[in-house]
Specification:
Blueprint lengths: L10 H9 L17 H12 L7 E4 L5 H20 L4 H4 L6 E2 L2 H4 L4 H20 L11 E5 L1 H10 L13 E6 L14 H9 L5 E5 L3 H11 L2 H4 L6 E2 L2
Parallel strand pairs: 1-2, 1-3, 5-6
Antiparallel strand pairs: 3-4, 4-5
Helix pairs in contact: 2-9, 3-7
Length: about 240
């Protein structure tokens, strides 16, 4: 059947056609590809010639292997639920759950230690994983730390799947690899005072809602600058 001309459409058909996205997603034509976060991650992978994506996760609490397993299970469950909204199971298959854990090194590790190790890991990981440079990949710009507080928030404080965690009580720590304390030695102001002023604003890491980690936060940090979405702990940032 030939397409109807504009004159042949009913008012209802005109309204429905007008509501169609101008640039529909190949995964879900009912939404624009710009808002489909599975499409967004695919574009990131193509841009950087990469085949894997996802935050590296540092385990920094070792009191309970059972609780750690529960945390990972809930993270995977929430991630699957989120990708189902975008018909993005194919992109989900490319998500690399890279867990860095070593009790002798990372138990109760500070953000600074995790950041330092992550920077070292990033020196060789892109070629090993992707066979390509890091490009602008978020995977090599930010990492996740799960300390005792984060683990408790997910396992004990947040509503477990399949219940909806409407208050987003569960969180993980998102660490900016590039952050550093900005001390201008040419400034006559005392360095300790300047450090304190910066500490009041940006600590180089923040708590983000774990159930929004994938794909929402992965896409958000790709689209925005750190100061635009930063929330100082203990506030939990929500996408």
């Amino acid at each position: 059947m030939a397409d109807l001309t504009e004159d042949q459409l009913t008012d209802f058909e005109r309204r429905m056609r007008a509501r169609r996205p101008q640039n529909p997603s190949p995964r879900d034509p009912s939404m624009s590809t710009e808002v489909n976060q599975a499409d967004d991650i695919e574009r990131q992978l193509v841009r950087d010639s990469h085949r894997a994506w996802g935050f590296v996760i540092y385990r920094c609490t070792y009191d309970s292997d059972d609780q750690w397993a529960t945390f990972l299970d809930r993270l995977r469950t929430r991630t699957r639920e989120s990708f189902a909204e975008y018909n993005g199971e194919d992109i989900l298959d490319l998500l690399a759950y890279t867990i860095i854990e070593d009790r002798s090194v990372f138990e109760d590790a500070t953000v600074e230690l995790v950041r330092e190790h992550f920077g070292q890991w990033c020196e060789t990981a892109p070629q090993q994983e992707q066979g390509a440079p890091p490009g602008r990949s978020i995977r090599y710009s930010y990492c996740i730390q799960v300390d005792a507080s984060a683990l408790k928030s997910v396992v004990h404080d947040a509503q477990p799947p399949p219940q909806f965690d409407s208050q987003h009580k569960g969180f993980v720590n998102l660490i900016d690899r590039a952050w550093q304390l900005n001390l201008d030695e040419s400034d006559s102001e005392d360095s300790s005072e300047r450090a304190g002023q910066q500490d009041q604003q940006d600590t180089g890491w923040m708590r983000v809602a774990y159930d929004q980690l994938y794909p929402a936060w992965y896409c958000l940090v790709n689209q925005m600058q750190w100061p635009d979405f930063y929330r100082r702990p203990p506030e939990i940032a929500r996408a």
